[in-house]
Recover the amino acids of this structure.
């Protein structure tokens, strides 16, 4: 399956990297996945200039895995049977028989509990009318995701959720590569976290990043949130993971890692799916479970 993006090297603006063939049901699927640095020290690892996550920091964060090749995206637990992630993690194909969810582990491809996918619902307007718009997907698992000290359900935005003004601090975590060079970077073998700053929507739309891809039908829409933190970013392998707002003692899922260069440089914002815009869609598709 060909990935969708704005230019011959288009896969590099996703938050995933390195194509891996996935065969299931007689068909060939492709996900984008960076290699793991098995020699990476827990203290040395970075999302990109992030730090090691501790047990209990993000108990709703799960690894989305291929049953043969391991982790390729992140996600968040909504309830006992549903996980929310990014649509571009699945592109044009959605084969639940080769997808599983690993919950309750800080280590990549190890530990925790594994839950086989039963159903994958990619938003029917993914990349319409513009690339990466509606970048959201739901995964239903066969065996329950029960809450425990290592697995909890993420909070969705409400009418009382703080407005995401420029400069507001938000948080992300994942097993993505640990440098700004996606061509030579390695994924972290442990969960890493990073603090980011919200970037004003209008300023984000005028960023150099979007100017570079202005002829590729790539535009910032109202379904997207931007962050810009010099020297820090989510990057390849972090796709589908959460962007979180701290509200008191709780974390609220305000965004889903979607696309960007992952450099942490001025003019290269990170872009996230705005979860608040999909409350009706989420509830409609998970109703009765």
């Amino acid at each position: 399956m060909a990935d969708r993006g704005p230019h011959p090297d288009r896969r590099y603006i996703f938050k995933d990297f390195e194509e891996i063939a996935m065969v299931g049901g007689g068909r060939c699927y492709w996900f984008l996945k960076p290699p793991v640095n098995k020699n990476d020290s827990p203290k040395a690892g970075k999302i990109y200039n992030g730090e090691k996550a501790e047990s209990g920091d993000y108990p709703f964060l799960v690894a989305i895995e291929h049953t043969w090749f391991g982790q390729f995206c992140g996600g968040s637990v909504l309830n006992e049977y549903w996980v929310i992630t990014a649509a571009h993690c699945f592109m044009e194909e959605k084969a639940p028989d080769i997808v599983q969810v690993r919950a309750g582990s800080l280590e990549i491809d190890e530990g925790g509990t594994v839950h086989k996918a039963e159903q994958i619902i990619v938003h029917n307007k993914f990349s319409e009318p513009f690339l990466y718009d509606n970048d959201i997907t739901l995964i239903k698992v066969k065996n329950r995701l029960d809450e425990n000290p290592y697995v909890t359900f993420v909070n969705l935005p409400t009418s009382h959720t703080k407005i995401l003004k420029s400069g507001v601090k938000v948080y992300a975590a994942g097993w993505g590569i640990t440098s700004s060079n996606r061509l030579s970077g390695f994924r972290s073998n442990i969960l890493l976290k990073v603090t980011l700053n919200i970037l004003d929507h209008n300023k984000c739309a005028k960023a150099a990043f979007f100017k570079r891809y202005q002829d590729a039908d790539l535009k910032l829409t109202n379904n997207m949130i931007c962050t810009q933190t010099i020297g820090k970013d989510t990057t390849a392998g972090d796709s589908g993971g959460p962007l979180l707002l701290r509200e008191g003692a709780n974390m609220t899922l305000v965004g889903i890692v979607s696309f960007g260069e992952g450099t942490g440089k001025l003019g290269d914002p990170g872009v996230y799916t705005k979860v608040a815009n999909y409350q009706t869609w989420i509830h409609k598709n998970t109703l009765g479970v």
Q: What stands out?
A: The radius of gyration is 17 Å.
